[in-house]
Design a protein that fits this description.
The complex is a heterodimer of chains A (131) and B (367). Chain A contains 5 helices and 4 strands. Chain A is of the alpha+beta class. Chain A has a 4-stranded antiparallel beta sheet. Chain A is elongated and about 55 Å long. Chain B has 12 helices and 8 strands. In chain B, strand 5, helix 9 and strand 6 form a beta-alpha-beta unit. The termini of chain B are far apart. The chains are: A alpha+beta (131), B alpha/beta (367). Chains A and B meet through helix 1, helix 2 and strand 4 of A and helix 4, helix 7 and strand 3 of B. Chain A: Pfam families: Trm112p (PF03966). Chain A: Belongs to the TRM112 family. Chain A: This is Multifunctional methyltransferase subunit TRM112-like protein.
Chain lengths: 131, 367
Amino acid sequence: MRLLTHNMLASNVRGVTSGYPLKLEATNWCTKEVDLNADFIRGLLPKIDWRALVAATRALNLPELLPEEQPSEEEIFAEGAANVEGSAIRRIHHALLEIHVQQGALICPESGRSFPIEKGIPNMMLHEDEV
Amino acid sequence: MEAATMAWTAAVVGVGLVYWFVWVMGAAEVKGKRAVDLKMGSITNDKVQDKYTQYWSFFRRPKETATTAASAEKVPAFVDTFYNLVTDIYEWGWGQSFHFSPSLPGHSHRDATRVHEERVADLLGAKPGHRLLDVGCGVGGPMRAIAAHSGSDVVGITINEYQVNRARAHNRKAGLDARCEVVCGNFLSMPFPDASFDGAYSIEATCHAPRLQDVYGEVFRVLKPGGLYVSYEWVTTSLYRGEDSEHVECIHGIERGDALPGLRRQDEIASIAKEVGFEVVKEQDLALPPALPWWTRLKMGRIAYWRNSLVVRVLTLLRIAPKGVAEVHEMLYETAQHLTKGGETGIFTPMHMVLLRKPASAAEEAK
């Protein structure tokens, strides 16, 4: 499960009103390199909940990866930034697309219900009595 | 020719034929699933027979499963079982798009399928930067075509974990895994916040919901105000007569063999959509003329079915395929007969298209 996916998931437990964002617990995760596409990031950024993304990186013990405040568009999409090691766009690209959580869980912030992540797939299926 | 040479020639030809039959002819598309790779989803080999028997008895009387609350709750689990049983067979014998399409003269089934899928993207006005939801995405055939055609991002949801794995593998192979994501979940209770998608579509998938209102309501919730939703619905048409026992048998056959808790009527769809708050922008049965028949592909597939049936039985004998596969394959063949009849008599259509809009003024409701 990539953090891009985590960013769009919410708890669907009946009766829960603030089921977003899900808390991330990862017992096994890895990184896989992917080509950076600035246009893709540009299209994606408006849809990303920054605080949820930062929280997810903190949960993976990467407190230095992203700043608390979302950097400005000028900074992210500055000319040539994609080629600069440690630039904002490269960090965002890495966080969203290159981290893969293989084993772990997503926890509903309100009910505590745990959705397992197995072999990279988060299973958001509720049991019959939870729907 | 000497007897020994003849025997050797016969043996070589025989082996060649078996190889051709099983390995070469056994794939739907050049890089598709192969007969020797058939798995029953996440069901282990020893459980296949049981799971199939359970499935068959549950869907014996489809309309009753929809009406009793206790049964309706079990439907998702049985739909999941169904797709464990059939996903590999579908990929092997049909392709990566688990739906029908109007046939296009002079074009392959793959092309006809792609055109039918791209139509969805066009109806939605899908563009790069849009995030679309595929409700009931299977192994992602439509998702990939729609993402490639429109440049949009697509998120698919399917109840079947095995399909999630297959879809992701296909997305990676197609180089689309940055723009196509798949989530394992129930479309009756989707794990997405309100108003998180620019558009949504479902291709022949909502028929698995015991109540159409429930899936439509969820789609409505996760769509942004002003967002469009396209659905290709499996429905009975105005030609269907409940008093005609042949019609009833045909529709029951379709429901039982496709994990459907009860087909809706064509004329109900619009009112159900409005019930949950949608505006109906457009409605059209895409199977009607001038469209060419969608069921000819099923009929043409008869020879392939016989061959596949033989292959499956041989593989079961050789203990390569788990016990129960042959029965599942038989069930699908019978279902194909019912579907063909439904198409020929015009009492059934798998492609009643509705284009729906969530009003731009729709207020965000607290959950």
